[in-house]
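Section 3.1: Structural characterization of target chains.
Under the original work plan, the team committed to producing a structural model for every single-chain target entering the pipeline before any wet-lab resources were allocated. The record below documents one such target. The sequence was received from the expression subgroup and is listed exactly as submitted; it comprises 99 residues.
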Amino acid sequence: MPQSDHEQPSPEEPQAPPPTPFDHPLFLPAILSGLALWFGYDGWFNPEMKEHLDFNRYGFGLLLIGAVWFGYRGLQEMKESRDAEGGDGSSSGPPAPGS
């Protein structure tokens, strides 16, 4: 029986699912930063938001702390994965002028 050009992967080789934007280490910090901006605007600059000032101001502080914390951890994760892949952090493009 002739073999087809399109071979099926063997069952021993598990395939990882394709990555999604939600898998990026800086996805959560970006969302938290956006929410912190929204809460900060409502807490200090929006003149119509007088009922929930404390909620927005405390929410701004908590979201800002979360964005900074998870942003730092996301950057560390990106650095570790880059180091694990053997990259030294330098670009593979043309050399910079003057070097």
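The chain has a mean pLDDT of 84.
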